[in-house]
Every structure is written in structure tokens, then in C-alpha cells.
């Protein structure tokens, strides 16, 4: 454990590519967080749902982003960073855990909406946070178990580290399983709202819209992880895959920090209009003495209600 290891210069091109993809998506995610901070009425309506996933994804993306920045700076300075095997093992397993934590954020939201919509129980943001905290503990336990169950391996990020292929398979399977569970719950909510929800027409309409939005949101982490799951066939079962696939397409999973929140945001008309107005006002463009936002409002008509807190 106290033996020294290092990240070789041969890892530079790969980590640079990963950072270019991941860093861009985290930056775009930060703009979405800023958008909600500047639109407090949307934060109030969507804080247990879309806002929770948006801000949670940003926070949980920071450990891996910090690691990528550290490695990119050092390797492009032609410096091979050195650390103990224990530190390298912890950092790799911890960042893998936080990545999985971010990918399963739609699950506590789905559970929250199941109780709200199907069981008609009022719950707070604290319930969503507590549920996800319990999920995070499972991934942390998996990361820690790499130490007693892992064996010494050669790795591209570290020349030597302690790693358990079994625990990695458990992490990937748990991530996929929890995401599929979130999709299943959202499908149940969708069917319930369509068939049995008899609330006031406007609330019913917003519930259908938000349910569709949450279903789409829960599917994104699965879709972007498909290349990584296919790539694991090579790692665990020895199936030979084309180099172009294993060296590049696995990185689609790094698109999740941006695609997961933006998919749910753009599926709701009220947020689409707010985003459009946000960009128009930020540019302060005036045509014929009138702001473009006034033109947009005249074309799109009355703005839909943004109160989705009971949906």
C-alpha cells in the first residue's frame, strides 16, 4: 500500500480527450445551475425534481473533474505525478463512486413523485436528499471494499493499484439496476396519471408533462452508458472490440452531467420559454425600440403556469 506508483505520460491523450468532453458538460451544467438561481420561481417549483438532479449532478461531478484537471496539467507539463498505491486506489474508486452517484440521481426523484402522485403523500426536499444519501452510502461501501477484496493490478491511470473486478462489476450493475428501477417507477406514475388521476384539469396537465419529463430524464443515464456497458464485455469476458470503439465511444457516459438535466428542462414548455427569455434578455437586443422578448411573448401567447410544486 505504501509502495509508490505514478500516472505515465502515455495516459495524456486519453485523459485530455475525457477532460474535453467531461469538462465541457460540467461547465454547461453550471450554466443550468446559474439559470435556476436567477429564476427563483422555477427553483421553488422544481427543487425536489429537476433542480435536485441539476445541482446534484454538478456537485457530484466535481471530484472527477478536479482529478482530470490535475492530471491534464501535470501530464502536459511532462510531469508524471507520483503517489502511493493506497492513494491512487482511493482516488480512482472514489471518483468512480461519485460518477455512479450522479448517474442515479433520477431514482430518489422518481420515488418522491411516486409517493406524491400515486400515494398522495406530501414530502419535502429533505426526503429526496435523504434517499439519495442512502444510495451514496452503498456506492461508498463498494469503493471501500476494493481495498480488502482487490488485488494488485496494472492500470492505465496508475501503473499499479489495488482493484477488484468483482466490485467494479457490482458498481456498474448497481448503477444500471437503479436507473432501470427509476424508469420503471416513472412508467408506473405515467400510467397512473393517465388513467386514474382525476385532479383539476390544469394540475392534471402539469402532472402529465412533468411525468414525461422525469421519464426522459431517468432514461438518459442508461442511454449514454450503453457504449461503456458494451465495452465492459471486452474487459470482463474477453470479447474483442474495435479499437475505435473502446478508445472513444466509452466517453459518451461523460455527457451525462449535461444531457440528464437539460433533457428534462427542454421537455417542459414553461422552462423552454424561460431559457429563451433568459438568453434574449442577457443580450439586451432591441429591434424597433422593442425587446425581442416582447416579440417572443406576442408570438407564443400566454405563458403557461410555472407552478409544478404539486405535480
Automatic annotation (TrEMBL):
InterPro entries: DUF1182 (IPR010601). It comes from the Eukaryota. The keyword Transmembrane helix applies. The chain crosses the membrane at residues 20-38, 50-77, 83-111, 123-149, 169-193, 214-237, 249-271. Keywords: Membrane, Transmembrane, Transmembrane helix. This is Uncharacterized protein. It comes from Caenorhabditis angaria.
Amino acid at each position: 500500500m505504501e509502495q509508490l506508483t505514478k500516472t505515465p505520460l502515455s495516459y495524456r491523450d486519453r485523459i485530455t480527450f475525457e477532460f474535453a468532453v467531461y469538462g465541457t458538460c460540467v461547465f454547461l451544467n453550471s450554466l443550468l445551475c446559474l439559470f435556476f438561481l436567477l429564476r427563483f420561481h422555477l427553483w421553488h417549483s422544481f427543487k425536489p425534481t429537476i433542480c435536485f438532479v441539476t445541482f446534484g449532478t454538478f456537485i457530484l461531478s466535481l471530484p472527477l473533474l478536479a482529478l482530470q484537471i490535475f492530471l491534464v496539467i501535470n501530464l502536459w507539463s511532462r510531469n508524471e505525478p507520483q503517489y502511493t498505491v493506497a492513494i491512487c486506489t482511493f482516488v480512482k474508486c472514489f471518483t468512480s463512486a461519485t460518477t455512479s452517484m450522479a448517474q442515479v440521481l433520477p431514482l430518489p426523484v422518481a420515488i418522491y413523485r411516486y409517493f406524491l402522485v400515486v400515494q398522495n403523500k406530501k414530502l419535502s426536499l429533505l426526503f429526496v436528499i435523504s434517499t439519495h444519501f442512502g444510495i451514496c452510502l452503498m456506492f461508498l461501501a463498494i469503493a471501500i471494499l476494493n481495498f480488502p477484496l482487490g488485488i494488485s493490478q496494472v492500470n492505465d491511470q496508475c501503473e499499479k493499484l489495488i482493484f477488484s473486478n468483482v466490485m467494479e462489476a457490482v458498481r456498474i450493475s448497481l448503477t444500471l439496476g437503479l436507473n432501470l428501477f427509476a424508469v420503471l417507477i416513472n412508467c408506473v406514475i405515467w400510467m397512473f396519471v393517465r388513467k386514474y388521476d382525476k385532479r383539476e384539469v390544469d394540475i392534471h396537465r402539469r402532472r402529465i408533462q412533468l411525468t414525461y419529463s422525469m421519464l426522459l430524464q431517468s432514461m438518459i443515464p442508461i442511454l449514454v452508458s450503453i457504449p461503456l456497458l458494451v465495452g465492459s464485455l471486452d474487459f470482463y469476458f474477453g470479447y474483442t472490440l474495435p479499437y475505435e470503439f473502446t478508445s472513444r465511444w466509452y466517453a459518451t457516459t461523460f455527457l451525462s452531467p449535461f444531457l440528464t438535466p437539460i433533457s428534462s428542462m427542454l421537455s417542459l414548455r414553461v422552462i423552454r420559454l424561460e431559457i429563451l427569455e433568459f438568453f434574449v434578455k442577457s443580450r439586451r437586443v432591441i429591434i424597433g425600440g422593442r425587446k425581442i422578448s416582447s416579440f417572443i411573448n406576442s408570438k407564443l401567447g400566454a405563458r403557461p403556469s410555472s407552478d409544478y410544486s404539486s405535480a
